[in-house]
């Protein structure tokens, strides 16, 4: 991930509501990789459910989820009129690796 991509993803995370939405998705451990096989009893979250959990309005949650999706941190799957969200594990791993890469030189200098 280059510097511009890292900066854009960090900017997306600068909103507290977005971090709350990510935490909610993480806690619910959504497993909706295939919308046709998605078992809604596993609590695949709609925008309304996430909005309620995060304490924001549905339009606000929708906006924040759109930004998180644009940054590659969540996935969207549609079923009928409903949109279901899940964490995008690869996007989160890439962000974590980029941040770890920033910390690596500091850790090496502390060890020396």
Would you spell out the secondary-structure blueprint of this structure?
Blueprint: H1 3-12, H2 16-28, E1 45-46, H3 47-54, H4 58-70, E2 74-79, E3 82-87, H5 89-111
Antiparallel strand pairs: 1-3, 2-3
Helix pairs in contact: 2-3, 3-4
What does this protein structure show overall?
By secondary structure, the chain is α+β, with helices and mostly antiparallel strands. The chain has a single domain (3-111), classed as Winged helix-like DNA-binding domain superfamily/Winged helix DNA-binding domain (Arc Repressor Mutant, subunit A, Orthogonal Bundle), CATH 1.10.10.10. It is 60% helix and 12% strand. The chain has five helices and three strands, in the order H-H-E-H-H-E-E-H. It has helices at residues 3-12, 16-28, 47-54, 58-70, 89-111, and strands at 45-46, 74-79, 82-87. Strand 2 (74-79) and strand 3 (82-87) form a beta hairpin. Helix 2 (16-28) crosses helix 3 (47-54) and helix 3 (47-54) crosses helix 4. It starts with a helix and ends with a helix. The model has no long low-confidence stretch (mean pLDDT 83).
């Amino acid at each position: 991930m280059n510097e511009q991509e890292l900066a854009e993803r960090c900017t997306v995370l600068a909103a507290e509501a977005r971090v709350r939405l990510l935490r909610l998705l993480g806690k619910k451990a959504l497993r909706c990789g295939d919308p046709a096989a998605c078992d809604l009893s596993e609590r695949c979250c709609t925008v309304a459910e996430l909005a309620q959990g995060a304490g924001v309005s549905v339009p606000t949650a929708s906006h924040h989820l759109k930004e998180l999706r644009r940054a590659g941190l969540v996935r969207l799957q549609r079923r009928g009129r409903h949109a279901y969200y899940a964490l995008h594990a690869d996007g989160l791993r890439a962000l974590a690796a980029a941040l770890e890469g920033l910390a690596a030189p500091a850790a090496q200098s502390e060890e020396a």
